[in-house]
Amino acid sequence: MMKLHDSLTDAVADVSADLPALLDGSRRQGLALRRRRRVLAAVGATAAVAVLAGGGYAVAASVGHGAHTTLSWAAASPSSGVTAPLTGRGLTAALAAAVEEVADGDLTEFRGAGGRQPMA
């Protein structure tokens, strides 16, 4: 009776591995993987630098003109093009109008950092 180990040894006795071909193939695959990772890292770094540069340019442009810009609120409708400076009273009125559109009841006063302020 033949043991399992002996039968497996006899089954693979004539099989030989081409070690130089295996080594060459694995080396090529490793280099391709390394090259792909380097390219992806370079593309990612380039994209990050572009986003930071664009953001820096936008911030620098807004800071340079910051003293001359004012916030505005559309007086009639967004498509009318008529705007007015954004003030505390205007913002309060716009907020009250928006709340009254979606909630039941009346606004009689606002509470905030400045304390209670009655609605005018």
Task: Give a topology summary.
Layout: H1 4-11, H2 19-64, E1 72-74, E2 83-85, H3 88-102, E3 109-112, E4 115-118
Describe this structure in words.
With 120 residues, the chain is mainly alpha-helical. It contains three helices and four strands, in the order ααββαββ. The N and C termini lie far apart (107 Å).
Structural class call reads mainly alpha
Task: Count the DSSP helices.
Answer: 3
What's the main sheet like? Answer: 2 strands, antiparallel
Assign a percent range to the helix content: 55-70%
Strand content: 5-15%
- Taking all Cα atoms into account, the compactness measure Rg is 36 Å
Number of strands: 4
The whole-number mean of residue pLDDT values reads 76
Unreliable stretches, pLDDT < 50, 5 or more residues?
66-76
Features:
two-stranded antiparallel ribbon, mainly alpha, 120 residues, 57% helix, 3 helices
Short description:
This protein has helices at 4-11, 19-64, 88-102; strands spanning 72-74, 83-85, 109-112, 115-118. With 120 residues, it is mainly alpha-helical.
